[in-house]
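Researcher: Go.
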Amino acid sequence: MTGQNGKNGKANGHANGNGSGASEALSMIAIDAIAGSRQTDDLASVSLPSSAYADPASMLSVAKTLKARRILVTGTTGFLAKVFVAQLLQFHPDIERLYLLIRGQKDCPAEKRFYEEVVSSNCFDTLRDTYGDGFLDFLHEKITIISGDITEDHLGIPYDEAVEISSNLDLFVNSAGLTNFNPNLESALRINTLSGLFILDFIRLGGSKAKLLHVSTTFVAGRSQKATPEVIPGPTVYPAYEELQVELDALREIDDCMALAEHARTLSLDQERQSIFNKAARDWLKSENRLPSDEAGFEKRVKFERNAWVKKWLSTAGRERANHWGWVNIYTYTK
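Model: Structure:
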């Protein structure tokens, strides 16, 4: 597999299409994750006969490997995981349980998001046709919705519940991510990078029994125009290494980026910028026909203007930093 350059638009980081090929490939990699029998560098050359997917007696049978397994999936509301979940249920209904970690929103709890954003998708049409009136009962039998957040300790799950789930888990599929190309650097770092540490801690809660399948991005090549082999990243494995000839310390880079975010917040308190935010807030009150004496509305708008400035500053700084190391945007850099 070679890397691709992702330069335009807003992407979800995964291939387009009906999803069957992507889900099939994920299923085969999931076998390797559960069995622990294949080195990461070998995945680029995987080529399996179609019988390996269908024949229960095959040593590499997906059906045999996934039977009675407990799998946790993140990023379920995204394109790839949505298809992955639908096809797991369609072709491997004898899996024991699917745990779907979904971040609840103020006006939309996790379970409601699942039914409105995931089950309503046309990738579940075949399951609807197969089970008819029993479709929802089948989902209830196989799926547990977990309200959580990959950027929090224990993934936002109460400790005792997190330990119980992790202890009984066979496979953790992390397909969550912030896929805007150039978002706020701090948000991208928390969701795309630091979340991996929280996920590993969650797996350790259960004695490190579960295997981890991490879905990254197809856009690994950065600015490079040559074929880029899929190898494990390291201090000298990044797009601009040949140009810069220095080692990239990933942990230091994370610390540097977090320091950059703190610096942006300090800059936003600068007297000149504060005067700009205040003027923008007064202009907004006027445009909304609100009284100049509306102190609560004024302060709320000043905070809004300040946060918007910080986000924009971090997006610009993040793009510059990503480009320095050879990546074309913040998304691929933090992934």
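Model: The chain has 14 helices and five strands.
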